[in-house]
Fold this sequence. Notes:
The complex is a heterodimer of chains A (392) and B (240). Chain A has 392 residues and is an alpha/beta fold. Chain A has helices spanning 49-57, 78-93, 104-113, 131-164, 172-182, 187-209, 218-256, 259-266, 270-308, 313-323, 326-352, 358-390, and strands spanning 2-6, 21-25, 30-39, 64-75, 97-101. In chain A, strand 2 and strand 3 (30-39) form a beta hairpin. In chain A, helix 7 crosses helix 10 and helix 11 (326-352) runs antiparallel to helix 12 (358-390). Helix content of chain B is 39%, strand content 16%. The mean pLDDT of chain B is 85. At the A-B interface, helix 8 of A face helix 2, strand 6 and helix 3 of B.
Amino acid sequence: xxxxxxxxxxxxxxxxxxxxxxxxxxxEDTATLQFTGVWVQGAAVAKPVxxxxxxxxxxxxxxxxxxxxxxxxxxxxxxxxxxxxxxDWCQQKGIPVDVSGLPEGVQxxxxxxxxxxxxxxxxxxxxxxxMLAEVGKTVLHGLKDAKxxxxxxxxxxxxVVAFLRGKARFRPVDLVLCIQDAGPSALGIVTLISLLVGxxxxxxxxxxxxxxxxxxxxxxLVGLGTVREMGALMTAVIMSGRTGAAYAAQLxxxxxxxxxxxxxxxxxxxxxxxVLPRILALVLMxxxxxxxADLMGIIGGALVTVSVFDVSLIQYYNETRRAVHLHxxxxxxxxxxxxxxxIAVAGCRRGMQCGRSASAVGDAATAAVVNSxxxxxxxxxxxxxxxxxxxx
Amino acid sequence: MAYGDFLIQxxxxxxxxxxxxxxxxxxxxxxxSTLLKTLIGLQPPAKGDVFYEAQNFWKTDADERVLIMRxxxxxxxSGALFSSLTLSENIALPLAEFTGxxxxxxxxxxxxxxxxxxxxxxxxxxxxxISGGMQKRAGLARAMAMDPEILFFDEPSAGLDPVxxxxxxxxxxxxxxxxxxxxxxxxxxxxxxxxxxNNSVFLDPETKTMLATGPPKTLLAESADPKIIQFLTxxxxxxx
Lengths: 392, 240
């Protein structure tokens, strides 16, 4: 009586896990699905469940679906996971399903899986958003982000004011640790980078200047370039990658671990307790690091000029002294102060506003570095523009 | 209470009396922890008020709120110890910030609080060096450091072995009886609910509101709500 719709080419071939025979009673309204073979995760399955459902749906309307097993040698959760989709489909269509032909264990698992109905609205993929909605969401998110930044800067300023009035609550030992971390510990990397930047500047300038026999002016180029620009800028870039990211990660982890909540409920302002020492440490240390970077850059330039381009060390020294004025140092150090605040604010803010997962901490560290480098470059352009307008 | 547009709980109205051991209970995801955040000053309610005595907690200005918050202690689910400080520094922090006591006296209090939670001798350990249950007990020692008037516990017995959980229950009762501390516990641990709770509120995730308030034993004996009975009997008495 039963007409096989499609049959396994080799129903005895159990070990490869070939399975699933769909019978549909010809001229009748009952479909019988028989499961045979090995139903184990990892074994091959003859037919995807979607195809079986499509076959059930094609043709005349069904009044009953029978699920049964025959020669089922082995099974695990793969079988109930497969069956549950068929049962769900039948239920949607209002077709009664008879599971009494299944092993007891499978029946039990099916009942268990369907015991708690899916919570409405819990599924996320269903809410597909249009392009316009996405754009709107991005803009709103950007606005919220900007508002968060303004909020944070306000809180940081209040904390600094409280500090100046001697009322800020933080542990002095934390400030010392932050200073140690943002200052002396960074000397190695600052030395290396500044020295090399000085070398590079000297080489780049020398190629042009030596064409006119004007090698001595390498000293001017390196001196001014380092003191006014590169010293502060390179230190800032190093510190945003080194200290800014560390701030974001430290505070972010504390947030994940509810430590910041704990501070709040103790009645201690986390901005005063955690952010203030970090901002102070960077603001105190960055100008010193920039000054040190200037020295290293000039030494780097001197190394190249003296060893390759036949300029004596005394000549180089005198030329640098002639070219670089005190106000040039002022500009470099002023810049580094601004950069220090930007890095500390970007790093701490990303940490404080970090989400509560491991990946959120990583995102916070990344965002801290990206933000601070953007802030630094924008601020540097502005300051350079203002200086050139003012003629200093 | 809501997260953005997502409503969590509404129409909550209950009173916690001085000296109560008050249980906030309900199934997972019903908003117990969010309610706790609103009570301890971490998340403002979308609507409504929280009163501490006559003071409107969320409508009063921020400085006043901080003063109220200093009168409470909180034990977080994870312990939330400051990971860069040793246990003794963790507990000493609020004492050093808010009292004018000298170092030696603070150390004495720290050791005493640690011995209360069974961690005598662990002063110089960092939180990462001790087990989860010990971190939790150290967190309790820190929450008790300032002898708060109200102590909040977020899932205190989660992650504790049965014996430690029982010790914690005893400690809670002891604190209430000796210091008169009011205690608010967020939990779904039935043993604790009946052992220590003398008042409670039951939150339901489906109707998004509280179903009942009252002593847990009374709720079990008198409530007609099948959800409450099912919860309080671990589903063994299935009232239809």
